[in-house]
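We give the chain.
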Amino acid sequence: MARTTPHHPPHDPSQAPPPTVPSTASHGPAHLEDEPLYRRIAAELLGELHEGAIPPGERLPGERQLAGHFGVSRETVRQALEVLRRDGLVATDRRGSHATLKGPPVETPAALAFPVGARHAGRGATARATVSWETPPPGHAEALALAPSRPTLVHRYRSASADGRELRTAVTSFSGVALTEVEELARYRDRADGTTPAELRRAYDWLRRAGLTLHHRDTITRIAGTPSVRVTRQVHDQYARPLEITELIVDAQQDALVYEFTLPAAV
C-alpha cells in the first residue's frame, strides 16, 4: 500500500514559537516568545551552530541564503548576525561571516597561541591580559611604521605564581595594517580601556583567516644582572608589512622557551 506523507506548511519564525536554544547572553535555555524577530532568528541560528551544522571557523551562508532559510528579510538576518557578533559567536572578515564557537577552526589543526610565550597558568598561578588604545612603547612605533605619538592597540599579558612572583610579562603593539585587515582586532578599539580583560589567544588565527601569511622573527637577549631573558618577536605579512611586535620577559631559570616559523594564510 502506498504511504502518504503528511504535508507540513513552511516554517514561519514570525508565527511559530522559536525553539528553545542557548541564549546569546547566557549558557542556559531561554524562552524567546516575547523577543523581537531578529533575536529569535539569532537564537535559531545559534541552535544550529551548537548542533554542528556549521563547524567552528567555517563560513556561514550569505545573507540571502539565510533569509530564505529562515523565511525573513535580509535586514532581519543582518540584525541577528550583529547580535551574535557582539557576543563573539560570529566574526566577519573579507570572506564573510564565520562561526567562532569553542573548538579548533577547521583550517588550522594546530594553531599558534598569542601572545608569544603565553601559556596556561599552572596550579595556583594567575594570568591576566588587557588591551588599551595608546601610544606604543619606545621602539614599537618605528618597527610598526607608525608615526610618532600615533596611538594603536596595545595588548599586555602577565602571569604570576601563587606567591605573587612574576613569571612572564608580554607587551604587544599592533600595526595599522593589522587593525585595518583584521576585523576581530579592530573591534577591540572601542573597549580598549586598559582594564577590561581581553582574550586574544586566537589573534594569529584571525590574521591568517584575513589572508595574511605570518613571518615570525624572534630575537632573544639576556637582561644584565637578572636570570631573565627578553624575547622580541616581530611579525610581517607576505608583503613585508609589519603586523605586530611583542616583547616578552621570562625567567630563564624557571621556564623553557619554545618557538617556531612561517604560518601560511588560511585558504
About this structure: The first strand starts at residue 90 and ends at 93. Residues 80 and 131 are 27 Å apart (CA to CA). The first helix runs from residue 37 to 50. Confidence is low (pLDDT under 50) at residues 1-31, 103-110.
